[in-house]
Design brief:
Length: 474
């Protein structure tokens, strides 16, 4: 008889002998979990009421008796385990008991006991395995070749925000991708199907949008468990690699900016000299002409356009210079106030009000005041240019104590930034304006980066834009 042979109905067991083995068996029965519980001990009999098993039974509220014959009288028992191994006792019970309750004698009971012990070890191994799986932070699934989930670890359940019961027994494609048939990341290959087909581990990358609209990247690896030449299980491990991908993208962006910067510096330098010559000569020519001369307007055009070129070149050189900031302890609020003072009047001509909403106190930050001023002016100019007429620009400072960042938000009620150009905004020379240089934001980006900070924006076309600058404190 094995533990399995006990059947599915809840069997009632009587135990003869209340010693140590009895206690172990009681504990084993206790450990069975619902609904798999198949048997329970309902009575323990021993002449000695002091034995550990006897006492344990009492503490569990199980019937106990010092009268072996009383056990024989119990009509509800399905079988009796004899742990005492006393022939006289056994005979007494057998005689008394008129029913057909089977009795496992001492030898059979020993086998039963050993089986229970094996079960105990299995349970322990299972608990150990669960502990190991749960302590791995990657999401782990064990799937059978029918795509049904057999096991899931707690970190993955947390990520899925679902209880275990809603995951185990379900199809993996249903739980992971909400699909009704096997599918892979981005409609690509299904790693589980590939493992079954090839008997080899598979690795893929998976991109999806979470409930907050953020892009999340996962690396997914699936490994086969092979038994008798067939894939019996598939272990799928997934890891969130969003942080790594974002860092890669940022590095790429920085590299792009710095190589463009170098190129720009070279070109600007080359152009500067001939440009100065054109400008000087056209100005000299202009000086010699009277304003009513037919050539006057043409030469003036040359001078004006050359001046504009020089402006662009100046911007380029500034962009390429990438000066190390001369940082001194500064008060962000003061810098903001001074810039606001500078632009307020100018902006009022377009009927744009500029409001500053400064935090009571922000800690001093190590900044290059001139460079930061330039950044704020660049952003304010863009905001101003995005407002046709009548609007508002609001500047707001704050301190994020936890992140140890001072923050500056510049919010405008302008036309906003269309979705399709958002990724290009910080690119040098990217402009949507007829006379723009496309350098304001790329210069600002470089400055904030060299301050160890971050510049970002949020915008909805038609609704306005908010630029945020974060600068580290200390
Ligand atoms: N506040 C804003 N509102 C709308 N569009 C903006 C705003 N700030 C920047 N932009 C967009 O970003 C582009 C790049 O800005 P920038 O680098 O300062 O160059 P420029 O101002 O010379 O065009 C602008 O041409 C504009 O399309
Ligand atoms: Mg600009």
């Amino acid at each position: 008889m094995t533990v399995d042979d006990i059947g599915d109905s809840n069997l009632k067991v009587g135990i003869v002998g209340g010693g140590k083995r009895c206690k172990t068996i009681l504990q084993m029965f206790q450990r069975q979990t619902q609904p798999q519980r198949t048997a329970s001990v309902v009575i323990v009999a021993d002449e000695n009421a002091k034995g550990p098993g006897y006492q344990h039974a009492q503490s569990l509220g199980i019937d106990t008796t010092t009268d072996f014959e009383a056990l024989g009288d119990r009509k509800d028992l399905d079988f009796i385990l004899d742990l005492a191994g006393r022939r006289d006792v056994l005979i007494a019970i057998l005689v008394r008991k008129k029913s057909r309750v089977p009795v496992l004698d001492a030898v059979a009971s020993n086998v039963f006991y050993d089986l229970l012990n094996i079960q105990k070890e299995l349970i322990n191994t299972r608990i150990f395995l669960d502990t190991v799986l749960d302590s791995i932070q990657e999401g782990i699934l064990v799937i059978n070749p029918e795509y049904e989930i057999l096991r899931v670890n707690t970190p993955l359940l947390k990520k899925l925000k679902r209880p275990k019961e809603e995951v185990v027994g379900k199809y993996c494609y249903e739980v992971l991708y909400g699909e009704d048939r096997p599918t892979g990341p981005d409609e690509g290959m299904c790693p589980v199907a590939e493992v079954i087909r090839t008997h080899r581990p598979q690795h893929t990358k998976h991109k999806h949008i979470d409930s907050n609209g953020n892009t999340i990247y996962h690396s997914v690896s699936a490994y086969p468990v092979i038994e008798n030449g067939k894939v019996s299980r598939i272990v799928e491990i997934s890891r969130d690699i969003t942080g790594e991908i974002k860092t890669q993208e940022m590095l790429f962006e920085q590299e792009k900016l710095s190589s463009v910067g170098k190129l720009a510096a070279g070109v600007a330098h080359e152009i500067n000299n001939p440009l100065t010559a054109v400008l000087t000569n056209s100005m000299l020519l202009l000086e010699d002409l009277r304003e009513d001369d037919p050539m006057y307007e043409d030469i003036k055009g040359i001078t004006d356009e050359t001046l504009r070129c020089r402006e662009i070149v100046r911007g380029l050189l500034e962009f390429a210079r990438q000066e190390t900031p001369a940082k001194v302890e500064s008060d962000l609020n003061k810098i903001v106030s001074s810039v606001v003072g500078l632009v307020r009047k100018q902006f009022s001509f377009k009927n744009i009000t500029v409001e500053a909403n400064l935090a009571e106190e922000v800690p001093l930050t190590r900044l290059d005041k001139d460079q930061l001023q330039q950044v704020i002016v660049n952003i304010l100019m863009n905001s101003m240019e995005s407002i046709e007429r009548d609007g508002e620009i609001r500047l707001e400072t704050s301190y994020d104590e936890k992140a140890r960042h001072v923050l500056l938000r510049i919010k405008d009620t302008g036309r906003g930034i269309p979705e399709d150009i958002k990724l290009k905004l910080f690119d040098p020379f990217f402009t949507t304006k007829e006379t723009g240089t496309g350098l304001g934001l790329s210069i600002s980006h470089g400055i904030i980066q060299r301050h160890g900070g971050r510049i970002s924006f949020e915008s909805q076309a038609g609704k306005g834009t908010t630029f945020t600058i974060e600068l580290p404190v200390g």
